[in-house]
């Protein structure tokens, strides 16, 4: 089954890290991506730009609005995503628990709709 790991972090906390600390964290994350590839879990990964670059788009009564910023102003912001393949949710949680971002933020693990033959639904 496919699982999307949504990586949330506190941009202020990351900005407060020294350049060396940030580079070490990024290096560790890239190394873990390579380990996931070797173990057959890795499908894709993308880091996101800071929330100040985000635009939120809504359509209401046929009218499109676009506002600057993320959907919600939260303590933690979505910083990236990793799409993995895992036997089940327990294995996906184990994979996510080793992601370096879990130490400085949180990882939301969600099954991808249509990746389990039992759910029969595609987006």
Weakly predicted, low-confidence segments: none
Structure summary, number of beta strands? 6
Q: Whole-number average pLDDT?
A: 90
- Overall number of domains: 1
The spatial strand order of the largest sheet comes to: 2-5-1-6
The CATH fourth-level homologous superfamily: Dimeric alpha+beta barrel
CATH topology name, in short, is Alpha-Beta Plaits
User: Which structural category fits the helices and strands?
Assistant: alpha+beta
Rg over CA atoms, rounded to whole Å, is 16 Å
Give me the oligomer status: single chain
What is the name of the CATH architecture?
2-Layer Sandwich
Q: What percent of residues are in strands?
A: 25-35%
How many helical stretches? 4
List keywords for this structure.
alpha+beta, flat, 123 residues, single chain, two-stranded antiparallel ribbon
Quick overview of this protein structure:
By secondary structure, this protein is of the alpha+beta class. Helix content is 33%, strand content 34%.
Q: How is this structure best described in words?
A:
- The structure is a single chain.
- By secondary structure, the chain is an alpha+beta fold.
- The chain has a single domain, classed as Alpha-Beta Plaits.
- 33% of the residues lie in helices and 34% in strands.
- The protein is built from 4 helices and 6 strands.
- The protein has helices at residues 11-16, 19-39, 89-97, 101-104, and strands at residues 2-9, 42-47, 55-60, 63-68, 77-85, 105-111.
- It has a 4-stranded antiparallel sheet with strand order 2-5-1-6. A two-stranded antiparallel sheet has the order 3-4.
- β3 and β4 (63-68) form a beta hairpin.
């Amino acid at each position: 089954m496919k699982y999307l790991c949504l990586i949330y972090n506190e941009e202020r906390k990351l900005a407060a890290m020294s350049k060396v600390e940030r580079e070490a964290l990024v290096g560790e994350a890239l190394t873990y991506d390579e380990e996931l590839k070797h173990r057959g879990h890795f499908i894709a990964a993308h880091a996101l730009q800071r929330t100040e670059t985000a635009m939120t788009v809504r359509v209401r009564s046929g009218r499109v609005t676009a506002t600057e910023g993320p959907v919600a102003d939260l303590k933690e912001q979505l910083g990236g995503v990793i799409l993995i393949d895992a036997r089940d949710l327990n294995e996906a949680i184990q994979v996510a628990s080793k992601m370096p971002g879990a130490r400085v933020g949180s990882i939301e693990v969600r099954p991808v709709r249509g990746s389990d033959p039992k759910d029969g639904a595609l987006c």
